[in-house]
Amino acid sequence: MASFQGKSVLVLGGSRGIGAAIVRRFAGDGAAVTFTYAGSKEAAERLAAETGTTAVVTDSADRDAVIARVRESGPLDVLVVNAGVGAFGDPLEQDPDAVDRLIRINVNAPYHAAVEAARRMPEGGRIIVIGSVNGDRIPFPGLAAYAMSKSALQGMARGLARDFGPRGITVNVVQPGPIDTDLNPADGPMKDIQHAVMAIKRHGRPEDVAGMVAWLAGPEAGFVTGAMHTIDGGFGA
Ligand code: NDP
User: How open is the CA angle 144-67-153, to the nearest 5 degrees?
Assistant: First the structure.
């Protein structure tokens, strides 16, 4: 297990679910962690008190606020962009504003945050974005906007890996399958249809994803960049 003692980590979207597990993991491994939240003030404050981390409100739908937050965080060793939303349903019925908001949070914010972080990131810095197995596979209807946003992260990571590689900065996407969170509860209405296409027929845990993120941020992964890392119980197999 890598030690992150002395490392500065910013997690965008850390108050709940996968993001909270990532915050706990880095804090437990000794990093100085700041995380953002938008709506869940109480959960964020509880997590910050429990882990000795810093919670700050920043809406990922607001590009300038995201850029300012990254800038104010100073030189980061690790940036994790976890904040993401769904807009599921029939595209013919969907509110176009909801789709555009999803794109701002799931695509625009990761891009601008990654670029801003790279301006001051030291040699060997790590940029990790949480995508989805739906970036590769969409076995059900109603996922087009969400899947589009997660596929966009793949091109972003490949491109930025080339841009920042000469400075030893890696850029990777972690692509979870069904993980037990508020967004996709293990006992939710989608569980049976999801488990039917999986090799391991259950939801994963947020801690599973945090473990992969910690590995990518650690010294063993310095040669891993521009790559997608799927952790999905075989959803995409
Ligand atoms: P949750 O809905 O459980 O948690 C989402 C987190 O993102 C919360 O901390 C939330 O903070 C934050 N967030 C959402 N919108 C914003 C915003 N506008 N600004 C700042 N923070 C925001 O989701 P998960 O933990 O399940 O998902 C985390 C990531 O993993 C997402 O990118 C999601 O797409 C991806 N993912 C999840 C899967 C799953 O099955 N759970 C599968 C594949 C990918 P707050 O409540 O304060 O707004």
Answer: 30
Measured in Å, residue 166 CA sits from the centre of ligand 1 at 31
- Architecture (CATH level 2) of domain 8-230: 3-Layer(aba) Sandwich (3.40)
Q: Is the CB of 179 under 6 A from ligand 1?
A: yes
Residues 6+ apart with CB under 8 A from 26: 4, 7, 9, 11, 33, 78, 214, 217
How many whole angstroms from 201 Cα to the centroid of ligand 1? 22
pLDDT on residue 2: 78
Instruction: Check if 176 has its Cβ closer than 6 Å to any atom of ligand 1.
Output: yes
Instruction: Give me the residue label for tokens 């404050």.
Output: 45
The ipTM of this complex is: 0.99
* Cα(44)–Cα(31) distance, integer angstroms: 18
Q: pLDDT tens-digit profile of 136-147?
A: 999 999 999 999
Cβ atoms of residues 108 and 114 within 8 Å: no
**Largest pairwise CA distance in the chain:** 50
Contact 83, 104 (CB under 8 A): no
For the Cβ of 210 lying below 6 angstroms from any atom of ligand 1, the answer is no
pLDDT beyond 80 at 25: yes
Residue ranges per structural domain of the chain: 8-230
- CA separation for the pair 179, 193 (Å, rounded): 14
Residue 177's SS3 state is coil
Residue 197 to residue 107: CA distance in whole angstroms: 27
The residue nearest atom 23 of ligand 1, judged by CA position, is 183
Quick one: average pLDDT of 95-124?
98
